[in-house]
UniProtKB/TrEMBL annotation:
Signal peptide: none
Keyword Disulfide bond: no
Entry's family note: Belongs to the ABC transporter superfamily.
GO cellular component terms, semicolon-separated: ATP-binding cassette (ABC) transporter complex
Provenance organism: Secundilactobacillus mixtipabuli
Matching InterPro entries: AAA+_ATPase, ABC_transporter-like_ATP-bd, ABC_transpr_CbiO/EcfA_su, ECF_ABC_transporter_ATP-bd, P-loop_NTPase
UniProt keyword annotation of Acyltransferase present: no
Source superkingdom: Bacteria
Any matching Pfam family: ABC_tran
This protein's name: Energy-coupling factor transporter ATP-binding protein
Domain ABC transporter: 4-236
Record's keyword terms, sorted: ATP-binding, Cell membrane, Membrane, Nucleotide-binding, Translocase, Transport
PANTHER family cross-referenced by the UniProt entry: ENERGY-COUPLING FACTOR TRANSPORTER ATP-BINDING PROTEIN ECFA1, HEAVY METAL TRANSPORTER
Length: 267
């Protein structure tokens, strides 16, 4: 099990009034979602978790080791990030070289690299376009490629910043299955999302950020059982809850249509 622990962490950009302030946050679940309004600080939190930016106060512990003490190679093996905009991550001449370059940061054996590259390209369904230039790919393909570059390194922790955005439905299904499989294989998967339906169907633990502070940590059902809090942090409940509330006046918590059906089955 992986444990990420933030203690008295604060960060502010020199050029903005925004401040991230997290007194205590512990993440141990294999699938964790981070949610909150635009500008709440979600991506800032991810940048701190990658070790690319250092908090101005406090520390971030991963399995009780300070993230700041890890060597660059160990950091890559510990935590990998798929950015919201895949283009920012891609710069090699071909799809295959892009994945190989990523793995070469932590692996030097060319045979191992070649085998792993072929394997992850097959996993994300990009084998047929391995010789294409990444910039000629469609947006879903670019996103799948940026996921492949992280899969090749196979870090303990995967961060996904808005993985569903700009993906078509089959790619969304593929990425969701991949994330669930990683979580089953004892990786930790943390995703930022604005999609409450996907969140409610996929995640067991959520952290809510608002104005740079953690306002809730817990299960989706516990969050959506507090409508005032959901409103205050600028979120909406899953669509099934809004529909059942509007149409039937039933304000109980339903995470998915299947959850509604299960709760109304007569035995
Ligand atoms: N490099 C930067 N320099 C200065 N200010 C920044 C920088 N990056 C982000 N900010 C500011 O910090 C605040 C938090 O930004 P952040 O990107 O973490 O929000 P977010 O929760 O990821 O939002 P979104 O849902 O829109 O992606 C915002 O006010 C943003 O304008
Ligand atoms: Mg963001």
């Amino acid at each position: 099990m992986t444990a990420i622990q933030l203690n008295d962490v604060s960060y502010h950009y020199p050029t903005s009034d925004f401040k991230l302030t997290i007194d205590q946050l512990t993440m141990t679940a294999n699938l964790v979602a981070i949610v909150g309004q635009n500008g709440a600080g979600k991506s800032t939190l991810f940048k701190l978790l990658t070790g690319l930016m250092q908090p101005q106060t406090g520390n971030i512990l991963i399995n009780h080791h300070d993230l700041a003490d890890l060597s660059p190679a160990d950091r890559l093996k510990t935590i990998g990030i798929v950015f919201q905009d895949p283009s920012s991550q891609l710069f090699n001449a071909t799809v295959e070289k892009e994945v190989a370059w990523s793995l070469s940061q932590t692996e030097s054996d060319a045979a191992v690299i070649a085998e792993k590259v072929a394997q992850v390209l097959a996993t994300v369904g990009l084998t047929d376009i391995k010789d294409k230039n990444p910039f000629d790919l469609s947006m879903p393909e670019k996103k799948l490629l940026s996921i492949a570059t992280v899969l090749a390194v196979d870090p303990q922790i995967y961060l996904f910043d808005e993985p569903m955005i700009s993906l078509d439905w089959p790619s969304q299904q593929l990425v969701t299955r991949l994330m669930q499989q990683l979580a089953r294989e004892k990786h930790q998967v943390i995703a930022i999302t604005h999609d409450m339906d996907w969140l409610a169907a996929t995640f067991s633990k959520i952290a809510v950020l608002s104005d740079g502070e953690i306002k809730f940590e817990g299960a989706p059902a516990a969050l959506f059982g507090q409508p005032e809090l959901v409103h205050a942090v600028g979120l909406l409940p899953p669509r099934i809850m809004s529909i059942v509330s509007d149409v039937l006046g039933d304000s109980r918590v339903y995470l998915t249509p299947a959850d509604y059906v299960a709760k109304h089955q007569t035995h």
